[in-house]
Amino acid sequence: MSDKAEKKTDRRTIYTRKQITEAYLSLLSEMPKNKIKVTEICRRAEINRCTFYLHFEDINAVEQAIEEDLLKKFKAYVHGQMYHKEGRLQLSTLFLDQILDDPAYRTLMLGQTDNPFLSLMRQIFREDLVMSLPQSHHLSDRQKQLLYQFIAGGVMAVQLEWLRNGHDHIQEENHFLDHLVQTAIQIDLPPDR
């Protein structure tokens, strides 16, 4: 196959997968996950069932692909936040612009009562917080765990509130949230005597 043909195939594959994932997200915003059928996804994406199965094994594989893409974006965001403290607010604003308003993120975060995606994101955020704690801290392992859980849970709760209720003053609120996170990360206790 020529390079030109491979590039065309890659573009078609990317386009088709995007159509399928967008159709799934559209349906997910209208109905519970367990009510969505491959036939409905195909109708919405304007493809046939053979094309669907050429790209995805089943509906769970569609959701998994969407989650993996969002998790890559989220990991890049969190990683940048923690390792570039001086640019944290800029990176946080980038998150708001690129991820918070992402239809896939919004649908997955708000679409389920028992939300494994939210739990996974909290875990990733908590793991990356470890890298931002000052090396000179005197916190016990349990205290660190509590701190990470507190920060990750708080940030995720605020983001969920923004998603549920809108976010007219999000830039000011985000600035305040960043200040809270940085203050919490700097916490220290005197060493045990």
What do these coordinates show?
- It is a single chain.
- Residues about 85 have low confidence and may be disordered.
- This protein has helices at about 5-30, 40-45, 50-55, 60-85, 90-100, 105-110, 115-130, 140-165, 170-185.
- It is mainly alpha-helical and about 190 residues long.
- It has 9 helices and no strands.
- The longest helix has 26 residues, at about 5-30.
- The protein is elongated.
Task: Give me some keywords for this one.
mainly alpha, 193 residues, 9 helices
Biggest sheet architecture: none
Please state roughly what percent of the residues sit in beta strands, choosing from under 5%, 5-15%, 15-25%, 25-35%, 35-45% or over 45%. under 5%
State Rg.
Answer: 20 Å
Q: How helix-rich are the residues, as a percent range? A: over 70%
Q: Span from first to last CA?
A: 71 Å
Shape: elongated
Order of helices and strands: HHHHHHHHH
Q: How many separate helices? A: 9
**Structural class by sheet pairing and helices:** mainly alpha
Q: Which residues sit in consecutive blocks of at least 5 with pLDDT less than 50?
A: 83-87
Count of beta strands: 0
Task: Give the overall pLDDT as a whole number.
Answer: 75
